[in-house]
Amino acid sequence: MRVAGRRRSGRCLAALGLALAVLTGACAGSGAGSGNAKDPDATPTSASARAAAAQKQLAKNSLVPLEGPAPTPELPVTVDSSDGRRVTVTDASRILPLNGGVAEIVFTLGLGDRVVGRDITATFAEAKKLPQVTKAHDVSAESVLSLRPTVVLADTDTGPKEAVEQIRDAGIPVVVLDPATKLSDVTTRTTRIAQALGVPAAGKALDARMSAELAAARAGVPEDSRPKVAFLYMRGSAAVYLIGGKGSGADSLLAAAGAEDAGTAAGLDKPFTPITTEALAQAQPDVILMMTKGLESVGGLDGLLQIPGIAQTPAGMNRRVVDMEDGVLLSFGPRTPLVIDILVDRIHRA
Q1: Exposed, middle or buried by CB within 10 Å (0-12, 13-18, 19+), for 44?
Q2: Are 1 and 324 in contact (CB under 8 A)?
Q3: Closest CA to 283 of 268, 303, 304
Q4: Looking at the keywords, is Signal present (predicted)?
């Protein structure tokens, strides 16, 4: 993650066809650990120190699983699927998550050695060598079946539907999950995945870990600071220029980081709205938040300032643009507390 101008972006973007994608409780048992994602002997207390540690961890592009031995699935289990079905899982020896955020949770629960394939959005280091079963976010039923999974984890917008039905018709349990579009969805998603894989105690332990990390990150929010931050989704090569509003997903992250979502404050009641000079003038963001590839696609900070209306905002005039890697910013998973650590520090800087 970088702050442009000083150094040089499975999921809430569902409306854009992207798979992008709190927390209380404590527990132990079934082999589940409950350690923190950072070394407890070196846990920084200031916002800047936490942000530096978070940035270092994200730069590794690697996950931090729960401490202790990997949990042993207790099966069979029957769970509710978000497509209205009841699904029985009898074997979790070959898990196939069809979303990058879901894969992050599976790996962090300690079940990564059971994962046999990946979705295009699973870009973290532990998953890169796994065979990819999607193309342009569409699932290949043939590729899935060739991996002989014993359970498939999908989202409500996983498609095409014919491919999902073909996988199910082959006798493979398919558990469908609701997409995570806000911070409060993370605990529900983690709990449901852990239950479907027969490791509910590990799910509670991960929820407790993330809860503690988020609380520590929020403690660094200055009491007298509430900047207005606009989330801009851009793909310059495709002429896509959007500003986030209510339900974009970024609004939830910004609220947790002690900021006000500029699009929502300007009355944008849709997740995304085409950028216009009028919308930017109404939003008047102090800071602009973007995905790294989106910022690069418009030519970096200098290119961004050439887009009509950007340079006239307080963020543009002060060159205050924060960007973060695409697969992390809106993943809503185990690495989300690291995102909040960074946002708390970066968006409140003078």
Answers
A1: middle
A2: yes
A3: 268
A4: yes
Token look-up 């995102």 returns 339
Q: Which helix (DSSP H) or strand (DSSP E) does residue 283 occupy? A: helix 277-283
C-alpha span between 337 and 212 (Å, rounded): 9
- Which string of DSSP letters, residue by residue, matches 145-209? HHT--SEEEEETT-B-HHHHHHHHHTT--EEEEPPP-STTHHHHHHHHHHHHTT-HHHHHHHHHH
What is residue 47's predicted lDDT score, i.e. its pLDDT? 87
Domains, in order of start, for the chain: 2-20+223-347 (3.40.50.1980), 40-218 (3.40.50.1980)
DSSP three-state, residue 58: helix
> Residue 100 CA to chain centroid, in angstroms?
8
Give the C-alpha separation, 148 to 202, whole Å: 25
Distance CA 187, CA 164 (A): 25
* φ, ψ dihedrals at 268, nearest 5°: -80, 105
Query: What is the residue whose two structure tokens read 């449901």?
Result: 192
Select from 287, 183, 219, 209 the least CA-distant residue to 49: 219
Whole-structure pTM value:
0.83
Structure tokens at 98: 């069809």
The percentage of residues in the chain with a pLDDT greater than 70, rounded to a whole number, is: 87
pLDDT score for 202 = 98
> Which residue type does 284 have?
Q
b/e sequence 156-170, b meaning 16+ C-beta within 10 Å: ebbbeeebbebbbee
Contact (Cβ atoms closer than 8 angstroms) between residue 265 and residue 228: yes
The owner of tokens 């929020």 is 218
Alpha carbon dihedral 80, 81, 87, 93, in 10-degree steps, equals: -110
Q: How confident is the model at residue 268 (pLDDT cuts 50, 70, 90)?
A: very high
Region of residue 24 (phi > 0: left; psi between -120 and 50: alpha; otherwise: beta) = beta
